[in-house]
Amino acid sequence: MSKAPHELQKKISQVEKMMEDISHLKENSNQNSSINITSLSNKGNYDFENIIFQSLYRIPILKNFFLFYPFNDNCKLSNLIKNFFKEMMNSSKINPEKFYMKFNEIDDLEEFCDDRAHDSYDFLEKLFEKIIEENDFSGKIFDNINLDNSFRDEGLGEIGLVKKGENEDYRGYKFTLKLYKFGFSIIEYLFMIIFQKKGKCNNCNNDITKFYNNNFLNLEIENPDRNNKIDIDELIVYNFNRKNKIEDKCNECNKESRTYASQKIFKLPHYLIINIKRAYINSNDIYIKYNGIINFDEILDLSKFCKNEEKNKKYKLISVINHLGNELYRGHYICHVEKNGSWNKINDDNVKSNVDFDDIKEGALILFYEKMNN
Ligand SMILES: [Zn+2]
Q1: 208 C-alpha to center of ligand 1: Å?
Q2: What is the Å distance from ligand 1's center to 166 Cα?
Q3: Nearest-10 Cα torsion for 321, 327, 331, 333
Q4: Which residues are near ligand 1, the ion (C-beta closer than 5 Å)?
Q5: Do 332 and 47 meet the contact criterion of CB atoms below 8 Å apart?
Q6: Parallel, antiparallel or unpaired: strands 271-277 and 217-220
Q7: Is the pTM of this model over 0.85?
Q8: Which has more pLDDT, 131 or 24?
């Protein structure tokens, strides 16, 4: 192989540098000002939308991207978020119908405008897909970067599998660059996490290593029937050690191999979104909600889950989305956001400040973490 991992790493740094220059993404000074939190009343069934926008608004780069990037008229969702954020910044009351009713004008998001209860993670996922579709920067970024020609001949999925005799890191960095080339937006820049899975071929026992990516860290609950608290670290250990299937063609025996693999993080994101999957199927084949406490701190250290010696592996919690109620498809969404060192509970248009940290854990569903500098 012609290129060493550190050369590819240098190219990735170049891409990240360009990404920072793409817009006026720098944090503006009023982030921690005394302006009150503006939240929307729940007219109909739109609590799930309000809390997602409240959380995204707390990510300075994303907030400024929507506020200042000149989207063209085809970017309907991006322009809608821009106007929403503008109002959040400037007014104390927002008419919810002005925003929520507009979703029926956006392809693929119409379903969220039917006045029925929806899953907040479902909504966030679809929202991200649409933002990615509207703001793909791959072309712009790669005008200035020459890539190895071998990139062109391989499919996106193929490049995730380490070839025989090849350096794992080399393949991991190549996979990262390939993702940047063929699909890259502000969402991937901020949230993309790259995993490395390792297992043994079930035919020939050869090592199989594969890379894959996601904009979320999804965590399933091991034993939902138990009643005691589950620590978030414990949940990550369970999900990283046992739950990862590799189904791919083995490089050694050339057969389709199915194996369980352990998982590590190859590349950490700037912002980490943890989605706790509280829905599970009970012994009667019915979907129910796990309503126990998942225990987490304001600081999350991912050192033991990472492959490489990245400088900082610590994250700071910035917002939490909670689902209250015992039933999956009913109940109520609220969220908690950190501001000036204290926690605020946002329940529709009601904002309560100085909430006790332990109180933000009830029904916690989606956690937003920001990477710390040190
Ligand atoms: Zn094999």
Answers
A1: 8
A2: 16
A3: 10
A4: 201, 203-204, 206, 250, 252-253
A5: yes
A6: parallel
A7: yes
A8: 131
